[in-house]
Amino acid sequence: MIAILGAGKMGEALLSGVLRAGRRPAELMATVRREERGALLRERYGVQIVTNVEAARTASTLVLAVKPQDMGALLDEIAPHVPSGRLVISMAAGITTSFVQDRLPADLPVVRVMSNTPVLVDEAMSVISAGSHAGEEHLKLAEELLSPVGKVLRIPESLQDAATALSGSGPAYFYYLVEAMVDAGILLGMPRAAALEMVIQSAVGAAVMLRDSGEHPVLLREAVTSPGGTTIAAIRELEKHGVRAAVLEAIEAARDRGRELAGG
Ligand SMILES: NC(=O)C1=CN([C@@H]2O[C@H](COP(=O)(O)OP(=O)(O)OC[C@H]3O[C@@H](n4cnc5c(N)ncnc54)[C@H](O)[C@@H]3O)[C@@H](O)[C@H]2O)C=CC1
Ligand SMILES: O=C(O)[C@@H]1CCC=N1
């Protein structure tokens, strides 16, 4: 039995992915804060909605999907009820495995995961790290849970905040760029719907080439950038405005914010 504690956006996305991957609703339970949310999840997926304590007592794998700020309270609530031998998977940004371990009974294995919203379309990037009581079998269980909804990579926990900044938040940066490009289309007099279609399809085409061609992004960009042409005129402006430096600083700021989150 797998329990998802705090089935909000990420928890629901994982729940739906795990069901798409073929697990039966009877193998899954979820916890929520609001009753209407529970009714909706029960109706949508046929899973059991239970209390945190019931989930802690029953499930062999506990997936903690609350906001980092709510993690301390959730752990305090379930700590007296988690039997030994259970696997705890934390999906929260910034929360370390030792933060979780310190609040739960001794020796419980904890795996830290940073996934992203493309879980919803089975294209997630999930990075996992083992806490000090978790071993190969626990990482394998986490991989089993997450690989049907996308790619899974093992990394040292010291890089988890960087991964949060890169791939956890990553989709937001691409959406932001799409928004900005659509605005540029509007500036140039393009109807909004047409601009959106052009930008989205360009993004999809670029993403598929990045994934499937095996070419380095620099080579792919160079292939678009004709001598004396249009693309280089745009790139000159991006360089002039320090876009590359802005990206470096933005992602570093996201990493630093992740480091602060466990402290509330
Ligand atoms: N949204 C994103 O793109 C990503 C989020 N994350 C992480 O996933 C976690 C969840 O994020 P979201 O799903 O975006 O947030 P969310 O706010 O949609 O979901 C959290 C849910 O937990 C519920 N909750 C809070 N305390 C509870 C408790 N004591 N018992 C039961 N339910 C409780 C809330 O009512 C809410 O529905 C966060 O820790 C975040 O850092 C990780 C990767 C990406
Ligand atoms: O913004 C956040 O804090 C979460 C973690 C990674 C993506 N969203």
Automatic annotation (TrEMBL):
UniProt subcellular location: Cytoplasm
Q: What class of enzyme is it?
A: oxidoreductase
Where is it mostly found? Answer: cytoplasm
Q: InterPro entries, per this entry?
A: 6-PGluconate_DH-like_C_sf, NAD(P)-bd_dom_sf, P5C_Rdtase_cat_N, P5CR-like_CS, P5CR_dimer, Pyrroline-COOH_reductase
The pathway to which it is assigned is: Amino-acid biosynthesis; L-proline biosynthesis; L-proline from L-glutamate 5-semialdehyde: step 1/1
Q: Name one Pfam family in it.
A: P5CR_dimer
Q: Which domain of life is it from?
A: Bacteria
Entry's EC annotation: 1.5.1.2
Question: Per the database record, which ranges form the Pyrroline-5-carboxylate reductase catalytic N-terminal domain?
Answer: 2-94
Q: Name the chemical reaction catalysed here.
A: L-proline + NADP(+) = (S)-1-pyrroline-5-carboxylate + NADPH + 2 H(+); L-proline + NAD(+) = (S)-1-pyrroline-5-carboxylate + NADH + 2 H(+)
> Has keyword NADP?
yes
Query: Which keywords label this protein?
Result: Amino-acid biosynthesis, Cytoplasm, NADP, Oxidoreductase, Proline biosynthesis
Q: Does the keyword Membrane apply?
A: no
Q: What does this protein do?
A: Catalyzes the reduction of 1-pyrroline-5-carboxylate (PCA) to L-proline.
What is the similarity comment for this entry?
Answer: Belongs to the pyrroline-5-carboxylate reductase family.
Q: Which PANTHER family match?
A: PYRROLINE-5-CARBOXYLATE REDUCTASE, PYRROLINE-5-CARBOXYLATE REDUCTASE 3
Question: What is this protein called in UniProt?
Answer: Pyrroline-5-carboxylate reductase
